[in-house]
Design a protein that fits this description.
The protein folds into two domains: about 300 residues, FAD/NAD(P)-binding domain (3-Layer(bba) Sandwich), CATH 3.50.50; about 100 residues, Alpha-Beta Plaits, CATH 3.30.70. The strands form six sheets. Strands 1, 2, 6, 7, 8, 9 and 20 form a seven-stranded mixed β-sheet that branches. Helix 3 packs across helix 4 and helix 10 crosses helix 11. The chain has about 425 residues and is of the alpha+beta class. The protein contains eleven helices and 20 strands.
Length: about 425
C-alpha cells in the first residue's frame, strides 16, 4: 500500500506502559503514530487499577539499584520528576525488589505531555473493534469511539492492549492463561486516607487485622504476610495490596463477581483497620480500581516464546532488542505468589521474534502480549519491561512501515541504542 494512502505509519492499540513505549519508539524512528486507548487516560494498570509502582526498571534485590530499562521509560520518569515526583528506586521491604513509586494523577498528565511532545495522535475513549487483513498483513482497523466508528489505515500495527484485543479481531490464534484454562489471580489494590502522617506502620498489626477480617467475612484473604504496602508519594494516604481474587475464566460474569466482591472486601477491611490498628481510627477507603488489577488474559501466537529456561539462565542473544530483569512472579493461586530469580547477569534478552505476530508481517506485540511461556510470563508482564518491549516493538513497526518488510534485528538495535535504550 503506498505511503500516501495511509492515515498513519503505525497504529497502536493500548495506552499502558507497552503502548506508550511503542508510541515513543515509533515516533522517534520517524513514524506518524496514532494510539487508541479505551479509557479516558493513559497509564494502563498504573492508573486504571491503582498499581502504584513501576516494576522491572531495575534488577532484582541487591544493595544498589541496577538499571535495566532506559529509553522511552526513562523519558516518562524524567517528565514525572519535572512534575515533582521523586521516581527514585525504592527497595521494597516485603519482596526485596527495587521499584519506582508513582503518583497516578501526575502520571496521567506526564504521559499526555510526553506523547504530545512526540507528535503522537491519541484517541481516548476508543477501542479497536475490527481489523481488515490480507493473508499476511493487517490493512486497517475499525475504531469505535464516542463519535461512532471510523477506519484507520496504516502500514504497521502494535498490539499493546494487554488483553490481545487487536490480535484477537485480526484472527491470530490465542492461548488462554497457561493453556490449561488457569489464569493468574487478579488483585484489588486499596488506597486508604485519613491516616496521620506520623502513624507507624506495623506489619504484625496488619496480619492481626487480616485474621479478624477472615473470621467475619465470607470472602477470605489468602495472603498471610500482611501484603505489600507503602505510603502514596506526596500524600499521607496508605496503599495496600492484600485482596486477591481467583478468576475461573474471562466471562463478564466472572469479572463482575471479582469486582463486586473485591469492593465489598475493601470496605469491610477498612472497618476492621479502624477498630484494631492504632492511627487508623479515622481511616476511610479513598479508592479501589477504577478496575480490578488484571495480571493475565490471552496470549496471541508469536514467532518465539520466551521460555522459563531463558529467564532462570539469564539468556543473552544476538537478536535481543530489550532487557528484562524482573523475577518470575506467579500468582497461580490467590494470595500465594511464587518467585524465581533471573540468572546470569541479572537480566535476559527479549528477542525480536517474541514481539512479532506469527503469520502477520506487520503486527507487533508490546507489554503483556509478547511471546512467553506460562512461567516466563510471570517475569515479562511487568510495566518497566513493558516500556522496553514496547519501545522495541514501536521501532520495529516504524521500520516495517518504512521498508515494507520486517527489519533485521540489527537495524532495530541500532535505532534503539540511538534512542537511549538499554540492550
Amino acid at each position: 500500500m503506498p505511503r500516501s494512502e495511509t492515515d498513519y505509519d503505525v497504529v497502536i492499540a493500548g495506552g499502558g506502559a507497552g503502548g506508550v513505549g511503542a508510541a515513543i519508539g515509533a515516533a522517534r524512528a520517524g513514524a506518524r503514530v496514532a494510539l487508541v486507548e479505551k479509557y479516558g487516560f493513559l497509564g494502563g494498570a498504573a492508573t486504571n487499577a491503582q498499581v502504584l509502582a513501576y516494576c522491572g526498571f531495575f534488577h532484582q534485590g541487591g544493595a544498589q539499584a541496577i538499571q535495566a530499562v532506559a529509553g522511552a521509560g526513562e523519558t516518562v520518569l524524567e517528565e514525572m520528576r519535572r512534575m515533582g515526583v521523586d521516581c527514585q528506586p525504592y527497595h521494597s521491604p516485603t519482596t526485596g525488589n527495587w521499584i519506582v513509586l508513582l503518583d497516578p494523577e501526575r502520571l496521567k498528565v506526564a504521559l499526555d505531555r510526553v506523547l504530545a511532545a512526540h507528535g503522537v495522535t491519541v484517541l481516548l475513549h476508543a477501542r479497536v473493534a475490527a481489523a481488515s487483513r490480507t493473508a499476511e498483513a493487517i490493512e486497517s482497523v475499525t475504531v469505535a469511539g464516542m463519535d461512532g466508528r471510523s477506519r484507520l489505515i496504516a502500514e504497521s500495527f502494535v498490539d499493546a492492549s494487554g488483553d490481545a484485543n487487536l490480535a484477537l479481531v485480526a484472527g491470530v490464534p490465542m492461548r488462554l492463561g497457561d493453556g490449561e484454562g488457569r489464569l493468574q489471580a487478579f488483585t484489588m489494590p486499596l488506597r486508604i486516607g485519613g491516616i496521620a502522617a506520623e502513624t507507624r506502620i506495623d506489619r504484625d498489626k496488619f496480619r492481626e487485622a487480616v485474621d479478624l477480617f477472615n473470621l467475619r467475612s465470607k470472602w477470605k484473604i489468602h495472603r498471610s504476610d500482611g501484603g505489600i504496602f507503602t505510603r502514596v508519594p506526596a500524600s499521607s494516604d496508605f496503599w495496600w495490596l492484600i485482596i486477591d481474587r481467583d478468576m475461573p475464566d474471562l466471562s463478564s460474569a466472572s469479572f463482575t463477581r471479582a469486582e463486586q466482591t473485591g469492593r465489598e472486601m475493601a470496605l469491610m477491611l477498612v472497618e476492621v483497620l479502624r477498630e484494631t490498628v492504632e492511627g487508623f481510627g479515622n481511616a476511610w477507603l479513598a479508592q479501589t480500581g477504577p478496575q480490578i488489577g488484571v495480571r493475565e488474559t490471552r496470549h496471541p501466537a508469536a514467532r518465539y516464546e520466551i521460555c522459563h529456561d531463558d529467564v532462570i539462565r539469564g539468556r543473552l542473544r544476538d537478536d535481543g532488542v530489550a532487557r528484562a530483569a524482573w523475577p518470575i512472579e506467579l500468582h497461580s493461586e490467590a494470595g500465594k505468589p511464587i518467585y524465581e530469580h533471573v540468572g546470569g547477569k541479572g537480566y535476559y534478552h527479549i528477542p525480536m521474534d517474541a514481539l512479532h505476530a506469527r503469520g502477520l508481517g506487520n503486527l507487533w506485540y508490546a507489554g503483556r502480549v509478547i511471546g512467553a511461556d506460562p512461567r516466563a510470563y510471570g517475569s515479562t508482564r511487568v510495566m518497566g519491561t513493558a516500556f522496553a518491549s514496547g519501545e522495541a516493538a514501536g521501532v520495529a513497526a516504524a521500520l516495517t512501515a518504512r521498508k515494507g518488510v520486517a527489519p533485521d534485528p540489527g537495524e532495530v538495535q541500532a535505532q534503539l541504542k540511538a534512542q537511549g535504550a538499554l540492550i
